[in-house]
Amino acid sequence: MRLKLSQETEKSGSLETRHRLLCTRQAATSLTLMLAPTPVVTMDCGMITSKTVLLLLSVIFLAAGATLGFVGGHFISSYEDFDAFFRDEQILLPAIIIIIVAGVMLFLGVTGCFVTIKESQIGLRFFLAILLLMFITEAAAFVLGFIYREKVVAEVQETMDELFQTYGKEKPETEMVDFWQSQFQCCGVKNYTDWVNRDWFNHTGNSSVPQSCCKQEFKNCSGLLSEPQELNTVGCAGVMELRIKELINYFMIFILGFAVVKFFGMLSILVIACRQEENGYRPLNSGVYA
After folding, report:
1. Which end of the chain is more exposed for a tag (fewer CB within 10 A), N or C?
2. Is 227 part of a structural domain of the chain?
3. What's the pTM value of the predicted model, to 2 decimals?
4. Membrane-crossing residues (predicted)?
5. CA-CA distance, 78 to 196, in Å (whole number)?
6. In the chain, count of helices (H) and strands (E)?
7. Which DSSP category does 38 fall into?
């Protein structure tokens, strides 16, 4: 009987000891977990740079949209003050197009900021598709601008030949030729001697060119060909070609700059997407941690 009680006492002591050891281990494990540093989701340099580029691109879109919207709105408000001089309301079409483009720019800016901060994969893909479409469009416009620049000479000369031939017959065309010659200080299409072959020159019969060919410093200029020192001898076609080429060059530089920015924007989106897939990275507010 005593032996049996002794065995039961030993069993009870052994179970109690095991229970105490188990509780001690659980307490130690809990303390270790509490003291362990909390894992923090970090972004590498590539991720930070990519997000910065996308935010900068979005800010550029917002600034461009706000500027274009102001220009278009100002044009429409100015039309209301001078609508008596313009009977054709189609003159407002450029302003309407500018406002539409401004709306698209603002939408892209807001979308870019949102998807960059939230790091939404669907949003990033949507933004990438829009940037790619705009990049292709701008690349096509750049190529067309380069091609058109080479055709400017022939087209300008042909158009101006027809316009100068109607000088003195149609009032709008006559006023336009006079404006060009006085504004750009030129005379004729290729040079001032072109007027010899014009109907207006043969009709007047006084061997003179229009008064708009006279240099501004000669107030008593009569336009006679015998006094070339008082005339602008440079042709208007060359001046117009140079100005149009300069305008196209500025346009191409502007397009090229925007295309480069969009290229880096697309590259940044791809970097963010690759980092998310490689590291299993998700934004902190999504509830999933790396």
Report:
1. N
2. no
3. 0.57
4. 53-71, 91-114, 126-148, 250-273
5. 43
6. 7, 0
7. P
